[in-house]
Write a structure and sequence with these properties.
119 residues; 43% helix; single chain; globular; five-stranded antiparallel sheet; 2 domains; alpha+beta
């Protein structure tokens, strides 16, 4: 799952090392995003590791239950009427612009500029 918030961008997956452990791996391209997620919502998140050879350089393990509770709280904490403006306020214009690029790319789904494979 990709999670794009006004305080960070995350990729949440179940790695083979999570199987049977009750954990998920939260990955990010920017360490401060994971640090903010931990500080605001996931105090039990394990230590952040870094590996430049991975697609997502930074990652940490978290219990599924704690993440589920945190996702609910993140939704309850939404207090803005424009996401990109909130990103600009929280993380600056450069990050807001990057998120705008993602918005533009995904807008192609709605605008008919995208065809499903096999169409």
């Amino acid at each position: 799952m990709w999670l794009i918030t006004n305080f960070g961008f995350f990729s949440i997956v179940q790695k083979s090392s999570d199987e049977g452990q009750g954990t998920l791996t939260v990955r990010s391209r920017v360490k401060s995003d994971l640090e903010m997620l931990k500080a605001r919502y996931l105090p039990g998140m394990q230590e952040i590791s870094a590996n430049a050879s991975h697609d997502y350089k930074y990652r940490a393990k978290v219990s599924r239950a704690e993440l589920a509770q945190a996702l609910g709280q993140i939704a309850l904490d939404i207090d803005y009427d424009n996401f990109k403006n909130s990103v600009a306020e929280q993380q600056g214009g450069t990050r807001a612009h990057l998120y705008g690029d993602v918005w533009s790319t995904l807008y192609r789904l709605q605008s008919g500029q995208y065809e499903e494979p096999g169409e």
